[in-house]
Amino acid sequence: MQIYKFNNILKPVLWGGDRLLTFKGLPPCDEAIGESWELSAISNRESVVANGDDSGLTLSQLVARYGADLVGEDVYRRYGTQFPLLIKLIDARRDLSVQVHPGDEMARRRHGCAGKNEMWYILDADEGAVIHTGFSRQVTVEEFDRRLADGSILDVVNATKSQPGEVFFIPAGQIHSIGAGNLLVEIQQSSDVTYRVWDYNRRDAAGNLRQLHIEEAREALDFAPRNDLIDHAPIQSLGVTPLLRCPEFEVCHLDCEDTYTFDLPQPHSFVALVCIEGAVTLHADGMEPVALAQGETALVPAVVSRIAMRGRARLLTAGVPVVE
Question: Whose CA is closest to 176, among 136, 147, 146?
């Protein structure tokens, strides 16, 4: 095994822009790119290894080949060959739809897949950009339907001005939307199920109103008030700062200035490293060094106990908490 990098998966969407291409150091294109799928086992949009002897394998094939050595014994016991996380970069040039994700029970019953808890780490935000998360007060189903009909649903959803470095947790069942002007990292359960409830009456390229999923959303939604901007310890100038931990994933911020050695607790899962600024070279015993630059993501196998870094960079680390 090795430290793995993957080919780019760029998704054009009507609300996307051009900042992801700049952020990742890619040439411009004529399409509006809204998402870069950094680490994905979702069918038809699956990460493919870009380096080393396993080049060309999909992430699912990689898990099937190496099993617990790649993902960790606890992760393999819980998820088998299904890789449990999906990591994206998102550029919202325009407002995203107002939406909700189902929990595990509903997602398995209706779609045969996991539900979706997710988090956002704000990379950059235009002046006045906001994140919408959770109802601001108790809402009834009748009021929900009425506000969808008259387009006022966001009047009862929290709007938080977004700032770089902020973390938002979006549990399954929580209404939410990414406002225009946000560039962020999204880390979530491996699921592509989204129920749109409001989309500003926008039309797709064919002139059709975008599909909404009102019936499903009514079942999935938590109508109680909540807002999940996460308070975390101040980011350290060197080393690891925990940002968020839930049963499905744990995320930290990591700063490297010239050199840093990252000792992983035992036992542990795989570790995904998302470079959000600068560049580093990753070293692990018995493996070829791997260069990681801003906008790139690497997957470190669970058998690795120590990662030595050389360079100056800020990264996010993501893995799955071990169940004792």
Answer: 136
User: 30 burial class (0-12, 13-18, 19+ CB within 10 angstroms)?
Assistant: exposed
Local structure of 100: helix, strand or coil? strand
CB 287 within 8 A of CB 3: yes
* H/E run at residue 195: strand 195-198
pLDDT tens for 105-133 read: 999 999 999 999 999 999 999 999 999 99
Query: Over the stretch 256-283, which tens digit does the pLDDT of each residue have?
Result: 999 999 999 888 999 999 999 999 999 9
196 is catalytic: yes
Round to whole Å and give the CA distance between 213 and 315: 36
| Torsion angle of C-alpha atoms 86, 13, 104, 82, degrees rounded to 10 | -40
Catalytic pick among 93, 147, 196, 314: 196
The amino acid that residue 94 corresponds to is: R
Q: Provide the whole-model pTM.
A: 0.96
Only one residue has tokens 């199920």, namely 193
In 3D space, the residue among 165, 137, 164, 143 whose CA is nearest the CA of residue 227 turns out to be 137
